[in-house]
Amino acid sequence: MSFLVDGLQYSNWSEAIFRQLRAGGVDAVHVTITYHETFRETVANIERWNRWFELFPELVFQGFTAEDIALARRTGRTAIFFGAQNPSCIEDDIGLVEVLHRLGLRFLQLTYNNQSLLAAGCYEAEDGGLTRMGREVVAEMNRVGMVVDMSHSGERSTLEAIAHSTRPVAVTHANPSDWHPALRNKSDRVIRALAESGGMLGFSLYPHHLKGGSACTLQDYAAMIARTAERYGIAMLGIGSDLCQDQPDSVVAWMRAGRWTKRVDYGEGSAEAPGFPAMPRWFRDARDFGALRDGLAAVGFAGGEIDAILGGNWERFFHTSFGVAVPEQKRAAQ
Q1: How many domains is the chain partitioned into structurally?
Q2: pTM score of the predicted model
Q3: What angle do CA 55, 5, 22 make, to 5 degrees?
Q4: pLDDT tens across 266-316, in order?
Q5: Distance CA 149, CA 135 (A)
């Protein structure tokens, strides 16, 4: 069996959840450590993670390179890779990209639903694409080895990021929009561009991104993955569960509204107060990856193909994404 890697979680972390990761055999997970926080607030969140690493060293440790996935497997632990779902953590200072990378940040979304200093979010009526700063930040992320994540970005912004980036781009947690037309899900044009550029798509299990919501069946979800593989190939497919386990509903208000509005931002097309929907009964937490494996086998995937989707592809992508780029003049001298 290959590595098991989850491309995105934003759970309310605890010893119980860390033990579920181990019970589920999860070798690595990309975790959101910041949404709308400033740089200093993000550092405070890293401090909190440092304390968890200190308290539970037999369960989790911080991942910095792709090799840490293999280390996690050898030592029976889970490697935690940090990510941000909004560029607010770099404020208006491009130098903070490298600082945060040195602190372990390996993924940065250019937008979270709204227009940012870097690009337009998927909830904006107008998508002007990458901004001037956006192009510079993408280049800096390419240089230091930080993944450009376009999960919550608009169509034009996503396509421009794919075209502008010298490293493959990721959509860590979304599904095809022709399967379920959520604003956050991605079009054929975007997924095809990702595939052609060596990027990655992490299939989301968050109910708002699923056809049928919480009632989505494992068979329908697995069939959607099979159709995507037929269209674009298997090499760019992974899982980004978007688990928000044990989070209080108040966190949804922070995710959607942050500090940018005084009103309640319902989001996701909902007319009700924001709250977390129930997960599908076949995927409640990390211990259910075995059920997902069974579902993929049931729709015709071979063992090696399932291994690739459940972690092998992410592991390969980490290898090409996290290393510091060598300047051309230095590379020529080597």
Answers
A1: 1
A2: 0.94
A3: 40
A4: 665 554 556 789 999 999 999 999 999 999 999 999 999 999 999 999 999
A5: 14
